[in-house]
Amino acid sequence: MANSAQLRNEIAAGKWDDKLRALYGDAAQEICRQRARYCAALEQFELYFGPGRQVQVYSAPGRAELGGNHTDHQHGYGLAAAVTLDLVAVAAHNTDGYVRVKSRGFNKLDVIDLTVEGPQEGESTHSASLIRGIAEGFRAAGKAVGGFDAYTASDVLRGSGLSSSAAFEMGMAAIWNGEYGCGLAPAELAKICQYAENTYFGKPSGLLDQLTSAVGGIIFADFADPQQPVLEKIHADGLLPPGMSLCVTDTRDSHSELTGEFAAIRQEMEQIAAFLGKKVLGQVTESAFWAALPALRKACGDRAVLRAIHYFEENARTLAQRDALQAGQFDAFAALVLESGRASFALCQNVYCSTDVRHQGLSVALALSQSILQGSTGAWRMQGGGFAGTIQAYVPQSLLERYQSEIERVFGKGSCYILRLREQGAVKVI
């Protein structure tokens, strides 16, 4: 294991380029950018934690939701892909029983005493709560964890629907799994991270984000038994037809402060399920739902009813999307993407926040995408939790330059990301 200075020199000299190509592709410009990024992270580690430490470097990807918007937490299906935007973490053991994490772009240093267990007052919704919760998850799995110091640099847009939180969580889990030889499988790490986000951070998320960051590639998941989800990895190569790009637009309105809006979707879906004697909608038959519609409207309200309809439709659509991808039928897949986008407006109602109608960045981005892509082989939809953040679009080569130019004219330079899908999940890179 090299110390930080040695590793920085090796990366700058190109010794680790093969590792970088495996994660980020073969483009020379991108490899140069990643060399500089990794070297900068190592320099920052030395600044905060001292030179001469023996270190390892970990990477955890963000993800793009391809289908299954707000279905996973109801024990339905999910479809997502890992992307090349990732979190990189430089980490080193320590022996004092503390975890110290400094993250690029944040002023504070997270310091967690591993002898203090359980959620701490005032810590929820902060990154320290995730770290503490992940440590507890390892202990619950029978694994001994110790302290480490880490510096993280994330390219995953915060509050954007690309799941920066899952990338951070999986980065922390990968460090413990690697530094302390815990030997947990990717799916086990994902469950630990979901536990931390639900119980310590206080966000009632499903499992798909963490699973996709953990496993990589394209993941189709059946959450009928969320403790043992049935996973199917679809390899990323060949997903898109030649000349088709996946673009993600950052509308630059963060949804990081909208936890209550996200929670309401899950709560309302589960109100419907509870009225029908079940815990989640995945346990409710669609015929039973429609039979009880008059009573459900009265008991739960129309928005909850519409969100339940969204679940049933989106769940069936996600299965059809998987089938279309496996059959190489992109036209059928794209048509389903458009249907999903329309359902987000009409049924799930998570494209904008009803208490702040002056700000509808997602709506504007979707309308602009439609004006450019309608009539082409492309498609567009909202992704992620919703209300703010990002949209995605499949853009044919003939329209790519125009699409990126128009999007960035409205949302600012650098707001349109042309993504590659990533085959690897959270890994130790070096």
How many helical elements? 14
Low-confidence stretches: none
Shape: globular
Spell the H/E element sequence: HHHEEEEHEHHHEEEHHHHHHEEHEE
Distance between the termini: 9 Å
Rounded mean pLDDT is: 93
SS elements, strand count:
12
Sheet having the most strands: 8 strands, mixed
Radius of gyration: 21 Å
Helix coverage percent: 40-55%
Proportion of strand residues: 15-25%
Structural class: alpha+beta
Write structural notes for this entry.
- This protein is of the alpha+beta class.
- Helices cover 46% and strands 19% of the residues.
- Strands 1, 2, 3, 4, 5, 6, 7 and 12 form an 8-stranded mixed β-sheet that branches.
- Strand 6 and strand 7 (230-234) form a beta hairpin.
- Helix 1 (4-12) runs antiparallel to helix 3 (28-49) and helix 8 (259-275) packs across helix 11.
- The longest helix is centred in the C-terminal third of the chain and has 25 residues, at 302-326.
- It is globular.
- It starts with a helix and ends with a strand.
- The mean pLDDT is 93.
